[in-house]
Backbone:
């Protein structure tokens, strides 16, 4: 981590502290929900491209 700037080192340390107490089950649920939203968005964009509306 020494090759990173002090700002990047600080940001990384802050991030690591913030995730220490994360609820893994809640994070897994949120990630699954976000993945479904992403897949839905991709399908929508594909349909729009197919119709020529984007």
Residues:
């Amino acid at each position: 981590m020494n090759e990173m700037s002090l700002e990047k080192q600080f940001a990384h340390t802050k991030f690591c502290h913030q995730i220490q107490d994360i609820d893994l089950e809640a994070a897994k649920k949120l990630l699954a929900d976000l993945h479904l939203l992403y897949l839905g968005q991709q399908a929508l964009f594909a349909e729009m491209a197919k119709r020529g509306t984007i």
